[in-house]
């Protein structure tokens, strides 16, 4: 799929510094800093009410921040919205579509507003919308409405696409079709910003992740960078109680730590990989220890999220 995003411009796609947005006494954004690189997928994660949708809506020019600076494709979304809007695609969580409009008509209408739209029929086909093209929006299933919103966001070949929870409520097949489309957009040089509650979605798709909590970005980086945080991967095994931990620690690679949280149950942290596993089993063999129930668990984005926000990712 060819899009207009193939020639990335200079500078980040989004640069937010110290964004503040208040609704009466409630502060939705509390000094939010966010940089979104071009031609990559950035996932914005956060618990309910963290400020994800508010951030995206500010980027789209739907609301004006009370303080801070915001540039999207180098433009101010509020004062330069007319120049910005044709270059971005927006998929909202819900609403914004006339209930009586038919899916195919809507797609063709939006395609006509752009100079180099995607092939409408091909897009409808791949998102499973071909069979419901004549169905009014209000009669589409929730998943079909969701996929139509995605199609409307990308049909104009935007440089930058905002997808607010793009797979919420979709069945696994539609979810994978959405993921494939996002990967293709990125391959074509499009910048994608998506909010999600699904950790697997962020791990599958995102080049970069920003974790938002209480109106601020509290951590950011590649998924691998975030997972390399202070709490590391864990290898556990069982053996006879009271093993010589001093000797075991001495055998482990630098940066690893061994402990016996409960008698006979051992926990080793560090860079859990084939080398560490081989070291531990070799040490056990040397010391006549039959290590039982060996498990390894890599530190996931979900663990990082929990540690940072104290909250489960899913609502
Ligand atoms: N129009 C509004 N009027 C009043 N408060 C609002 C409005 N929009 C958002 N808020 C509040 O601002 C905060 C941030 O909301 P926002 O929708 O950005 O969070 P979110 O991270 O997208 O949450 P969710 O994961 O539930 O979609 C919340 O406390 C919310 O109640």
TrEMBL record:
The species this protein was found in: Streptomyces boetiae
Protein name: ABC transporter ATP-binding protein
Record membrane topology: Peripheral membrane protein
PROSITE patterns with a match to the protein in the record: ABC_TRANSPORTER_1, ABC_TRANSPORTER_2
Record-annotated ABC transporter domain positions: 14-239
InterPro entries, alphabetized: AAA+_ATPase (IPR003593), ABC_transporter-like_ATP-bd (IPR003439), ABC_transporter-like_CS (IPR017871), ABC_transporter_ATP-binding (IPR050763), P-loop_NTPase (IPR027417)
Entry GO MF terms: ATP binding
Domain of life assignment: Bacteria
Pfam families: ABC_tran
Keywords, ordered alphabetically: Antibiotic resistance, ATP-binding, Nucleotide-binding, Transport
Keyword Nucleotide-binding: yes
Location of the protein in the cell: Cell membrane
Coiled-coil ranges (or none): none
């Amino acid at each position: 799929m060819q899009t207009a995003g193939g020639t990335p411009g200079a500078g980040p796609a989004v640069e937010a510094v110290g964004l503040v947005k208040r609704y009466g006494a409630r502060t939705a954004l509390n000094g939010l800093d966010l940089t979104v690189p071009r031609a990559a997928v950035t996932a914005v994660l956060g618990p309910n009410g963290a400020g994800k949708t508010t951030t995206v809506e500010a980027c789209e020019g739907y609301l004006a921040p009370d303080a801070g600076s915001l540039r999207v494709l180098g433009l101010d979304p509020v004062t330069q919205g007319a120049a910005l809007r044709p270059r971005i695609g927006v998929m909202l969580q819900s609403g914004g579509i006339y209930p009586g409009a038919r899916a195919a008509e809507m797609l063709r209408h939006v395609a006509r507003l752009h100079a180099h739209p995607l092939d409408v029929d091909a897009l409808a086909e791949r998102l499973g919308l071909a069979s419901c093209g004549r169905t009014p929006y209000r009669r589409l299933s929730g998943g079909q409405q969701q996929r139509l919103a995605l199609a409307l966001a990308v049909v104009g070949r935007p440089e930058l696409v905002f997808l607010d929870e793009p797979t919420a409520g979709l069945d696994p097949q539609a979810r994978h079709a959405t993921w494939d489309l996002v990967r293709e957009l990125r391959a074509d040089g499009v910048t994608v910003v998506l909010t999600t509650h699904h950790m697997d979605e962020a791990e599958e798709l995102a080049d970069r992740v920003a974790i938002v909590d209480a109106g601020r970005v509290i951590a950011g980086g590649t998924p691998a960078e975030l997972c390399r945080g202070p709490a590391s991967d864990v290898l556990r095994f069982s053996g006879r109680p009271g093993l010589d931990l001093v000797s075991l620690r001495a055998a482990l690679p630098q940066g690893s730590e061994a402990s016996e949280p409960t008698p006979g149950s051992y926990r080793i942290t560090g860079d859990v990989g084939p080398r560490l596993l081989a070291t531990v089993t070799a040490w056990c063999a040397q010391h006549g220890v039959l290590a039982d129930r060996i498990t390894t668990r890599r530190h996931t984005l979900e663990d990082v999220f929990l540690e940072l926000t104290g909250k489960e990712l899913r609502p």
